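Hi R.,

Here's the chain you asked about this morning:
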Amino acid sequence: MPARKAVVLLSGGLDSATTLAIAVAAGFEPYALSFRYGQRHAVELDAAAEVARRLGAIQHVVAEIDLRAFGGSALTADIAVPKGRSIEEMGTGIPVTYVPARNTIFLSYALGWAEVLGAADIFIGVNALDYSGYPDCRPEFIAAFENLARLATRAGTEDEIPFQIHTPLISLSKAEIIQRGAALGVDFSITRSCYDPGADGEACGECDSCQLRLKGFRVNGMRDPARYMER
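And the predicted structure, written out as C-alpha cells:
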C-alpha cells in the first residue's frame, strides 16, 4: 500500500516539529506548509525549512500572506509582546499575541493544498492544555473545521473524501510534547518558539512562548538547547 499523503502545518517551533515527526512515524507522506504572514518572529521560517529537511518532508511550501494589513496582534502590529508573565497570568483571558483567525486561515490553505494533492489528512500542532490561550486551538474548533472541510470542497462533496484534522498534541502538556518529540528524534536545537527574538534569532526567554517552553524542559530535567539572549 502506498503511503497516505498528509499536509502538515509547520511553524518551526517545537510543537509543529514534533507534529511532523509524529506524522512521519505514523507512516504518512508529509507535505509541510509554513506561512510568512508578517509575523515579527519570521526567523521561525528558517527553522521550519531545516526541520522539514531533516524530518523528510516530501515538499515544503512557504505561503506568503500579509496579516499585518489587519494587525490586531502583538505578532503582526506594533504592540508590545507581553514579557515576564506568571503561568497563572497566562491562564486567564486570550493574550494579545493571539492573531485573529490565524488557525482558520492556515487550515484553509492546508485544506486547499490537500485537495490538490488528493490527501485526506491534515496535521496541526495545536495544544489546549498548558494554558487557556487561543480559541482556535480547542477541540471544538478543530471538529467544526473538519466538518467544514467535508462540506466546502469538491473532494468532500463529490468524492466523499473524509477529511481528518489530526491534532496529536492537543491534550498534552509542554513537558509531554517534549518527551514525545525527543523519543522521535526531534532536534529541538533547530526549533524556534520565541515571539520576540533578537536580531540573530536568539530567544528572549521572557515571552509566554519562551516561558512555557523552558518550563517544559525543566519538568523533564532537560536543558533547552535553543539559543537565548544573554541576560
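The domain at 5-187 is CATH 3.40.50.620 (Rossmann fold).

Let me know if you need anything else.
M.
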